[in-house]
């Protein structure tokens, strides 16, 4: 069953066409990898899906338990003169402009990590995970101030979940250490744990193994697979380490120059001549 | 030896440049259209720079040596930690959660509070006034600390909200007949509204722009207060009412039909009563706010402020609405500033625009920075030191802004996170909590 | 409306705008290279005003009384010493900062501007200072005055326009045509890359501070000669306005800074001429806030794409 379906995604930066008609699907409970040479547009796809870029055109639909949602609509578009009429329409646009933004995509259930780790460096590991669970708490500030029973219960649950993930990612000894002091591998793991704490239906990992050694990479691979198999998480992955990609992916989408040039199972993609060409640059524009 | 020679040469160069810099501006004193020569001053200043640079150059290697020594011991302990780290963590956690620790903290706090409460009864009127002003700066520092220290938004026009609160009381009394107790929440609310109005468009922007817009806004408020004479009284200012004690006035001869404080309690009239009362109210508001801020830091909202300071993009990826969170910090800080303003107006009995210049904003910022961005205890201490120290060192009073400016630069160079690193809130883990 | 009055406001606005533009250059260049607002820049301009008065008095005490010589030497001395101050500000308050927090350079800048203001207040006194009128004489258009109406331009104002143009010309030449300027532009585009290609970016940053301060020095001389009085606090308001000019023209762009200065100068002059003098600063700040809200990339700029 399809969880995320990307259709005809176009992204232009000024005159530069970063993505053209990118389409692919992510099945529920699978690991889908985006691969391709440097500059192929992988991170751009990520940024469009997670709302950090506003795609020029196309559609990104996420199927939630409540029905499908179009992620591009959550971003809110810039106002134009045409929006002034009719008033009801304007009101909707204004509300979207004011309250729209990439955070609403995260709330719709898409979590992500970053190629360059973005942790809250001064906050402790535990706090990092608590920040991610802000939606578990009610919005009642008073309850928190007086320490009402409901608030304490919510806090207890959040702390328990955070500790569980920390243990899962072998960070249980670093609970109260500022995230900025952790080692690089620990930071990578903490970032994934933090994304998981938002309780996502789709987890987007941007090069989770970058900068890790072989042992750490293997550990990450095992972890990702476990997340999918045991916790029912769906993973969309960008990664340069082909061994990792081939080992854990159910489905691979190959991008080159902003276009999808191949898709299929790891075995299929590995033998696709266009993929080889894109990576090795044998034929195509290299010769011309 | 060559190291010392190099330090010496470097210091000489620095002193030479300093002499060049100091010479025209300190050595030649403008006196009308003429000049008075003061040879000795630039020489003394450059000499001072020379000594400091030399001292710094000689001491720095020592500090490095000391640090590396500590680094070595850290290395040793961390290699032991390999096997024992879990038990060490457990031990630390147990020590933190121990009743004894918290008992010490609570009793220390109670002791401090007792001292603070008894203070107005021991002090003369002058020092009571100083203590009141110090507490007002504590309030302002706490407010700005939320904005700058926790949320990481540089607000250079904080004085605007202070002014809104102060004028809220004075003008509310003049035009609407409001008293202190009505103005206290309203002043805070009004300041928060101003904060939201200013913040809403601005908080989407790059942090530096926020700084300059708030700077401009602070100046706008002051100029409007100064120039809109019909409404604000212009440079002459407005008088502000004094709080009542549950409806009892603090005047010698109350208005017809009213009872005064001293009459009700049948004690001789004392001019100082009102100041003691104001101080105690201010103290309780401050203590209450310290408690609230302490709680907030352990709540989703407070955590979101700090997370936003660390990384806005990561916050968005976790579903946190950055504009809303920033606005809440901005409004909360503004409200506290407004409350501080109400107290200021009440304690002075009078407000005029000169109290709300840029220097006031800078002073509060200095308090927050010197206290260590984000640290509540640090902010309170810095506010007390910054306001009370100049009272003891009269000669220092003139130089204080200069010294605070230098201290701000120095802090940013050597200790950007504050003299003491703010303690992170810890959470009970597992069944122990 | 009286056309001569309008003409007079245009003249005043252009003069004001030229001054704002000269100071705005310092903001825009530092922002272009370091991506931060140099809050201490207004104080550097204030120092230039003091230096102008000091050099004028110094030359008078040496008995130099030929106006062109006095002007030239004052300009030279003030610009040199202001540039030295700009250099020192960067050395003391910016260079030693680690990359710890985003707020560090801003707070350090506020600190150093407090230091500079109070340094001048303590060393030269808190009172308003002045300089004697140096260049007297006006041009009237039309020369006879049409029924008592005319547009008046003082010699000083003519000098301001000439000096501002000359200053901007020299700066543009430096940036566009010299190898130093090329290194500056490279650093502005991509600091890391420029560093990799062997550009000493530390030196470039120094150069930018020196050039910006030199322009503020020119502005300080011209303003002091024009208005005749100043105090230790003038850098604050003028600094914000010059920054407004830089934002108006699109921060980071040199011609933009000049254009923004002119737009701001003209609108401020018209506002104070035809609406209200008391609120002219409020008006200027309102422009700043308005521009930042509606066109943060300036009047001509294109919006930035956010990098993740």
SSE class of chain B: mainly alpha
Quote the distance from N terminus to C terminus of chain B: 59 Å
User: What's the order of the H and E elements of chain B?
Assistant: HEEHHHHHHHEHHHHHEHHH
Helix fraction of chain C by DSSP (H/I, runs of at least 4):
over 70%
For the biggest sheet of chain B, the summary is: 2 strands, antiparallel
- Overall pLDDT level of chain C: 86
Question: How many separate structural domains of chain B?
Answer: 2
Report the portion of residues of chain C in β strands: 5-15%
Description:
The complex is a heterotrimer of chains A (288), B (433) and C (308). Chain A is an alpha/beta fold. Chain A has twelve helices and ten strands. In chain A, helix 5 (125-132) packs parallel to helix 8 (184-197). The N and C termini of chain A lie far apart (42 Å). In chain B, strand 1 (28-31) and strand 2 (34-37) form a beta hairpin. By secondary structure, chain B is mainly α. Chain B is built from 16 helices and four strands. The longest helix of chain B is centred in the first third of the chain and has 58 residues, at 40-97. Chain B folds into two domains: 2-71, no CATH class; 114-414, ABC transporter involved in vitamin B12 uptake, BtuC (Orthogonal Bundle), CATH 1.10.3470. Chain C has 308 residues and is mainly alpha-helical. Chain C has a domain at 20-233. Helix content of chain C is 72%, strand content 6%. Chain C has eleven helices and four strands, in the order H-H-H-H-E-E-E-H-H-H-H-E-H-H-H. The relative contact order of chain C is 0.20. Chains B and C meet through helix 1, strand 1, helix 7, helix 14 and helix 16 of B and helix 2, helix 3, helix 4, strand 1 and helix 9 of C.
Task: Summarize the model shown.
The complex is a heterotrimer of chains A (288), B (433) and C (308). Chain B is an all-alpha fold and 433 residues long.
Features:
heterotrimer, A: 288 residues, alpha/beta, 6-stranded mixed β-sheet, 4-stranded antiparallel β-sheet, 41% helix, 23% strand, disordered C terminus, B: 433 residues, mainly alpha, ABC transporter involved in vitamin B12 uptake, BtuC, 2 domains, two-stranded antiparallel ribbon, two-stranded antiparallel sheet, 16 helices
